[in-house]
Amino acid sequence: MNNMPFKVKLISYRSNFGKILHRQSKSSTNLSNDGRYEFFIDDDVNDADFFVIHGKGVREPVSCHVAQENTLLLTTEPNTIFEYPQNYIKQFGVVHSSQIQTKHKNIIYGPALIPWFVGYTEK
Q1: Per residue in 29-61, pLDDT tens?
Q2: Residues with Cβ < 8 Å from 81, sequence gap 6 or more?
Q3: Which of 1, 6, 69, 113 could form a disulfide with 49 if both were Cys (CB 3.0 to 4.6 A apart)?
Q4: Across the beta sheet with 71-74, what order do the strands follow?
């Protein structure tokens, strides 16, 4: 049995987001609490088990060698701020959105996934 964590490539909506997000992992290691997932946030990883786009931050084409069903879009804005085009949405295996009008074959509706920045100051 392979005990290596799953590799998760995450592209965020905000530049240098990795410097903030890593604080939300155990001991700021980019590992999930159970050690099953290792996050590569805004990193040039080309091979991953999961590929996650967080928000509207992708302006240029990006790629990653990953199964299409393991691609996720996590929306961050209500449709009054930003509406995700259907052609963009349909390329993902799973979509998590607070936008009720969003349609996808594998959608999870819930609150916008926006982290809090308590205690963080940019230098």
Answers
A1: 889 888 999 999 888 889 999 999 988 767 788
A2: none
A3: 6
A4: 37-41, 6-11, 50-54, 71-74, 94-97, 107-109
- Model pTM? 0.84
Secondary structure of the chain in HEC code, one letter for each residue: CCCCCEEEEEECCCCCCHHHHHHHCHHHCCECCCCCEEEEECCCCCECCEEEEECCCCCCCCCCECCHHHEEEECCCCCCCCCCCHHHHCCCCEEEECCCCCCCCCEEECCCCCCCCCCCCCC
Q: What angle do CA 72, 73, 78 make, to 5 degrees?
A: 155
Q: Please name which of 60, 45, 58 lies closest in space to residue 12, comparing C-alpha atoms.
A: 58
Give the confidence band of 121 by pLDDT, cuts at 50, 70, 90.
low
Nearest to 108 by CA among 92, 99, 95, 90: 95
The answer to whether residues 57 and 77 touch, using CB atoms and an 8 Å cutoff, is: no
